[in-house]
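thoughts on both lines:
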Amino acid sequence: MPWSNQDGPRRPGGQNPWGSPGPWGGGPAGGGGTPPNLEELLRRGQERLQSAMPGGFGAKGLLFFFLAGALLWLMSGFYIVATNQVGLNLVFGKFTGKTKEGLNYNLPYPVGSVIKLNVTDFQATDIGSEMRVDSRTMIDVPEESLMLTGDENIADVKFRVIWKIDDVNPEDYAFNVSNPPGTVKAVAESAMREIVGRSQIQKLLTAERKVIEPAVQELMQRVLDSYKAGVRIVQVQLLSVDPPASVISAFRDVTAAQQDRDRLKNEAEGYANKVVPEARGQAARIQQEAEAYREQTVAEARGQASRFDQIYVQYKNAPEITRERMYLETMERVLGGADKVIVDKSAGQGVVPYLPLGDKSAGGKK
């Protein structure tokens, strides 16, 4: 029913129940206004639209507006991917492909959508400590850092995992895991507990710290690959490995004692490296002297044996003369240096015995 026929009660002065000339303006001066006819308004709007468009507003006009809207909708599907990103195209929620940096296109919303991932940005996840937002300071998280070692001791291990989205399969990161950062943290804590559970507390505090990092990184990557999480572990950094606070002083004493032991061991090895070569040199010198003495003695013995052979040949030719000669040579060798005078009794009384007193001034003997 047209509104012109819906005349309601009016207040004195020609006003409607709202107390004004009417929601669409007042009527004739001094009289009550009536609301305009809605059909009339629609007719006037259609006439204005037809006057604005050549040829009128018919099927062609509707087609023109439809095509223009469709063109604008299709053009809204262009998007730009930054240099550090990869775009994932979705059509009706289904992954259809990935795009690299630059200008790309996908069907616009609501048919298609695009997910942009920063595949070259590195992210850090701390385990055993976290950043306090209000003071920007690191606080300990004992429920994450306290771990049981292989020899049933407690170690306080704090470490950091550097990771990024796998640029080869970024769709795994977007669709296979609901909370990738939380998954990385849970896998990191689990892997570290497994590696620490195989080690002893003393080795963790000293020698095996550099062995733990690559072992945890390898184990984490293997687990995340099995999840198809689309995450690449770049590095695992051990921030600190300490015993619990209640026994840290005792462990420090043990570590100091081990360092003293290693120092004394190194000093002993250095002394041994100095003394052993000297002893070996002396042994080599004594051995060389013994070999020289042996060669000398053997040469002298061979010379004596050769001399004896020569004398034996002469002895066979003239035994008496050779025996006498040997006797005289032997007596000469024995008595040559003696300070004595030997008188043969068969020489008779012609020899006067005397006492050789020698010359005291010359240092002679009595």
